[in-house]
User: What shape does this take?
Amino acid sequence: MWRPPERIPYTPSPGRWPSAAEAAASRLFSPVRIGVLTLRQRTWVPAMVPWRGSADGFVTEDVLDWYERFARGRPGAIVVEATGIRDIPSGPLLRIGHDRFLPGLRELARVVREASEGETRLLIQIIDFLTIRRRPDPLRYFREFLAITPRHRHAYGRQDAPEADIRAWLASRPREQICKILDRRELESLDYGYRERVTDTHLEPILALPSQLPALFADAARRARECGFDGVELHYAHAYTMASFLSQRNERADDYGGEAPNRARLPLEVFAQVRKTVGDDYVVGCRFLAEECIDGGSTLDDATYFAGAFARAGMDFLSLSRGGKFDDARQPKVGEAAYPYTGRSGYECMPSYYSDARGPFGRNLEATARIRAALRGQQLSTPIVAAGGIHSFEQAEALLAQDKADIAGLARQALADPDWFTKVARGRGDEVRLCLYTNYCEVLDQRHRQVTCELWDRERLDEPGVKRSTDGKRRLTPPLWEPAHSHAQSIPSPSDRHP
Ligand SMILES: Cc1cc2nc3c(=O)[nH]c(=O)nc-3n(C[C@H](O)[C@H](O)[C@H](O)COP(=O)(O)O)c2cc1C
Ligand code: SF4
Assistant: This one.
């Protein structure tokens, strides 16, 4: 993963934890309304893919165990991981693109309701993504994947030459010559693997995205409602289809690219169809980027414009993330696919403890606060969810007190300790297992391996009933919290342990 060159090490600083009475009187543990729902407290576990679904996208026992464990900590809301809206194979990512996925998802909603005794609201993040292929072996690329065009024939010197000869010739050329013969996209496909873009309007399915996505998202939202989820989060963030429409890099020549109103058109049309399908009495919001953090990408001004448009359209909440783009991702190894959290924008999305002068804690807060202030200035009261390095009560309470956001999202901190919410509410904050922001979990995500946290995945492995990862080395969920026997956690120094 990319790290800021300054490499200043940071450790989480929880400050003073509140007593139970202080927590009860705090803003953080006060209710907040999002659309027709009331969250008991202003805490939120943002979507995190744990790679627990079946190979064909169904909810498994491991998925149920994962969310049950989070629900036991009783945050205000949990957002289930990015779940695919299409009925196409997408590995072990959860899917909601067909009614056959409903029984598993229904069970997931039931398990969370039961484990939290109805205290935690459950939303599901619904996503569309475009094709991305693994970086090819160069010989195979020239032999099979590259589409031979007149330009390649011209470089070869004979327009009527057999394709096989041109392919063999290209495969034997030195790199510097290849860089001159291939165009930018062909070279990218060779070096990084083929990746579709929303601007590839010469491809019929890409051209047709605006006519197809509203119904796909709406069907997915209908299924979410039928399964008992309390709401849906439209995934308009990071490297995926809808974020790519919002991006300043979206130069589609039709009504869906170019100026910001055009770029917001499809996200608004998707929302309109979702709303029409699920009705006004159901929570629908979105996650999008406060800043894309890539050259030529969308800025805070764009995000402020989008926030106003989404709020006026009637979204029930706006959750702000940052970065996480393919555009600056690290080159993958041959046989692997590019991963959008490996470049600078990836760092901005999931900052680790090696940082720059701004540090990893609350990196998205100033941008979030400015977007919220702009909304409030237009008399738009849509609740705003903040995330990024939030781990302490003081930090969360301050961002609410300073009107930077309405809800505090804790992703990796909740993964490090899903009982954070219960512990802090009960005045037992000193028993919180603090996230060290090592990004061990994120490396697992990148490798599509079952996500765990290094702070607990080797603990009490011999406990009866402990389920282990496929490599047999790690437990899949954290041990249960035993308040009577637990000890205050001292902050260990971050390790560079890798999964
Ligand atoms: C393992 C892992 C998986 C993630 N999966 C998603 C996802 O499915 N959707 C999403 O919007 N963000 C995803 N994220 C990003 C988090 O929701 C969050 O924005 C990010 O980790 C920063 O917040 P934090 O500092 O509280 O962890 C993921 C993060 C991690 C660590
Ligand atoms: S592995 Fe654990 S400690 Fe490290 S970043 Fe992830 S949640 Fe935090």
Remarks:
- The two ends are 14 Å apart (CA to CA).
- Residues 215 and 392 are 40 Å apart (CA to CA).
- The domain at 8-130+201-485 is CATH 3.20.20.70 (TIM Barrel).
- The pocket of flavin mononucleotide (ligand 1) is lined by residues 46-49, 81-82, 125, 237, 287, 321, 349-350, 387-390, 410-413, 441-442, 445, 451 (CB under 6 Å).
